[in-house]
Amino acid sequence: MAAYDDRDGFIWMDGALVPWREANVHVLSHALHYASSVFEGERCYGGKIFKSREHSERLLESGRLLDMPIPWSVDQIEDAKAAVLKANGLTDAYVRAVAWRGAGEDMGVASSRNPVRLAVAAWEWGAYYGDAKMQGAKLDIAKWKRPSPETIPTAAKAAGLYMICTMSKHAAEAKGCSDALFFDYRGYVAEATGANVFFIKDGEVHTPIPDAILNGITRQTVIGMLNDMGITVHERHIMPDELSGFQQCFLTGTAAEVTPVGQIGDYHFQVGQLTRDIAETYEKLVRT
């Protein structure tokens, strides 16, 4: 595929559709230097973005948490997404909305006089973990820890929180893994670099409490779906030494959807029928 800056199509920027190759920002944009940026990743199935408004609402909330009020309403963001999909002729796509502090009068840590900008792009994107949906993803264990909410607003989907994700995923890929699992600052099991994690034991599901990680929209959807299926879900703190006792494992996220996990470090999991049933039910739900 072509590089992401060299494609045909259109990207919505600050209220207008712009030819893809012209959707640029200045090198002195505040976000480039200080990570003053928040974003959303969404999937469009058959012309409909799954949980679209929830994503737009979370984008605005992420901006608020970073003291970066985004000057667009949920309805305006929804209209922008629809315009991008139509302009690019897409019905099944990944949608990326991103807001950032642009270039302006400030070029230090403070940036209150710089405009907050917004862009929406969309492109075709297949399975995030490739054939792992059948075989089960292989995960490394990251050396980095998810931070305390006292150090950064962990409830925001903020660019700065993903720096250790990039580093950890690169390290994982160098070992032949698809991704990496984080522990949090207390030592509890946390999440993967871009997905929440679930475990299965004796027909019941266990997943970390999102008190230091992003409470993913897909995570919330899957928990609701499991409740509807009559499957018991335990949201709790999980210690690393518990990994040996779980029989199955899967990841959830907009990009990951529901992806089974076959291995985390030295721990192995079955790609069992319950995990497959959950993945199949989710696939049906997003296309309803």
What are the key terms here?
alpha+beta; D-amino Acid Aminotransferase, Chain A, domain 1; D-amino Acid Aminotransferase, Chain A, domain 2; 7 helices
Q: In the CATH classification, which architecture of the largest domain applies?
A: Alpha-Beta Barrel
The CATH class designation of the largest domain is: Alpha Beta
Write the H/E string, N to C.
EEHEEHHEEHEHEEEEHEEEEH
- For this structure, the CATH topology of the largest domain is D-amino Acid Aminotransferase, Chain A, domain 2
Strand pairing plus helix content: what structural class? Answer: alpha+beta
How many domains? The number is 2
Helix content: 25-40%
Structural summary, described in words:
- By secondary structure, the protein is of the alpha+beta class.
- The chain folds into two domains: 114 residues, D-amino Acid Aminotransferase, Chain A, domain 1 (2-Layer Sandwich), CATH 3.30.470; 155 residues, D-amino Acid Aminotransferase, subunit A, domain 2 (D-amino Acid Aminotransferase, Chain A, domain 2, Alpha-Beta Barrel), CATH 3.20.10.
- It is built from seven helices and 15 strands.
- Strand 13 and strand 14 form a beta hairpin.
- Helix 2 crosses helix 3.
- The model has no long low-confidence stretch (mean pLDDT 96).
